[in-house]
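Follow-up to my post from last week.
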Amino acid sequence: MGMEMIQLEAIRKTYLVGEIDLPVLKGITAYVHHGEMVALMGASGSGKTTLMNILGCLDHPTSGRYWLNGNDVTDYTSRARARLRNRLIGFVFQSFNLLPRTSALENVMMPLTYSRDEISEAEMTRRAKELLAKVGLSDRLDHQPSQLSGGQQQRVAIARSLVNRPKVLMADEPTGNLDSRTSEEILQMFTELNRSEGITILLVTHDANVASHARRIIRIRDGLLEGDSSDLSHRAVAELKTAGSAP
Amino acid sequence: MKLNRVLITALRALRRNVTRAALTTLGIVIGVAAVIAMMEIGNGSSIAIQRTIASMGANNLLVQPGTAASGGVSFGAGSVMTLTPQDASAILRECGSVSAVAPVVRARTQVIYGNRNWVPMYIYGTTPEFLDVRDWNDLAEGERFTERDVRNSSKVCLIGQTLKRVLFGDESPVGETVRIQNVSFKVIGVLSPRGANMMGVDQDDILLAPWTTIKYRVVGSSATTINQSSAAAQTSTTVNSLSQLYPGTQNNLYPAPSTSELADTPQPVRFVNVDQILVAARSSTEIPSAIRQVTELLRERHHLRPNESSDFNIRDMTELTKTMSSTTTLMTKLLLCVAMISLVVGGVGIMNIMLVSVTERTREIGLRMAVGAEAGDVLRQFLLEAVVLCLIGGAVGIVAGRACSYLVTLLLHWPTAPSLPAILAAVAVSAAVGIIFGYYPASKAARLDPIEALRYE
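User reply:
Got it. Predicted complex:
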């Protein structure tokens, strides 16, 4: 175990609604290689957001195991998961989630303030400026979110997700609030990041058009894996099963 | 996450809503300002009261000669002659807690001006320091006598208001001459009115003169006897015809020595005693140490062995001092309680706004948690925001409070005094208010579930 970026084995998630157990994920086994760009597709209510939360270490699965970057993170405490998120994962949200009345630069620097590493204020500023330049916003450093367009806001959010040099980028409907032209720009940016930096990217979407930018599409339906555009995944599932039976 | 980073984060968060932060902290500003102003006004009044009571003699110690005893019969305080003017100057020189000393020679006899006469309550022979000891420097008229008058036994005196009224009426007594025991004294000053003392005795019924003059010129004939009534009787023979019926003079047991006999038998240097020594302690708190120092010094000067009892006694006005301190501290505490209440109200305001702020920034909290903030980081951030608000409020409040007390002094002429403890307490209390009232909202923020928080609308 541990060669893949993400490995899931029989992930189940059940919510307790009143007295009734509501299974949302019903046993998902999957993997994502280092440096892959994968789209996670599914209709609303299919459980893709729940899966995303588990993949993003925001939530525990009810059962099953999850390896991230070779470590079994299933039973990490909330504290350890917070550190893991800070170190390994970058998040991009549908609604950007920038801090209001805060400059783009400070928004990008924000995750660094929670870093365990000793990073000087100057270094933080340098990194944030560099990333904002990369997403084409070097002339908007002092602009607040309300002074930026949706596409620009999402680009700030992408810069923010990259500032900790994560290994995985998780984008939950990153183009959901953007027009088609801006969406295209953002998706191009993801593709470029994946190609040049080798960052593993997970795109969660219900839009086939968006998903088509990924090299591989994982479909989820009613809490189960419906299909995987990659033939390899079936072999991986078989591998996982044998490995799981002989730990 | 290091503290300075948390601090920067908290400051940035506060900067995002300056108006609200300012309004929130207003409660603390008012509270702290009230505490500071109350403490300063309270302090000022307590100092003023202390000064007033000190002028009544609360800081004074009265050193009296001890008792003489004969065959088991003691004659009460002051019946031996043990205190000297040198004792008085030694006390001033060697006792650290003493600020002024005045030896006193008492007389009780008639004062005559023109066709009026009066027997004042006090005729005190003393030094100019008497007025310092009694805090009685503001003369109504004229000036005080000097050290030189004491050395020269000058026949000058100061009179109190009552004496002035009965002898001079509305005239100015300064420059006039009064007679005491047929000795003419020039009145050089009139004391300011004092009223009755704690015992109801009129303090203005007084005549002050250099102690040497009273000692050698007025009580002179009775220098060796403390019993002034007999001395008065002796001298009154010339005035009072009744003394022929009831002779007050004692028959001399021995024949008077002739001039040559006196020259052959030189008298030893005469021991000069004073009736009492008035001592002023530096402050009411130093009274106990002043008593200790004076006792030690006088025992040493009087060559008393450890097992011998003191040949003098010291009286202080403990009761007065106690009343004074309890009154002023009670008043200050009361004011402080009232001010503290407003501080607590300010704290509740902070808590209220912080709770609103946590709800409003739920998504922000979710985001911070998603990018790696631990619950502790979030807790610290919100706690620090509250504490920073309170400390800023405290700082502004200190300035406002000082300004307030300054205005009170300026406009109402109430005495105020700056109080460092009040400022320190205000800072500590506002930080404490921040922590106490900031903790609940902060812990609420820290307990948020990141998933829920991110989805919160």
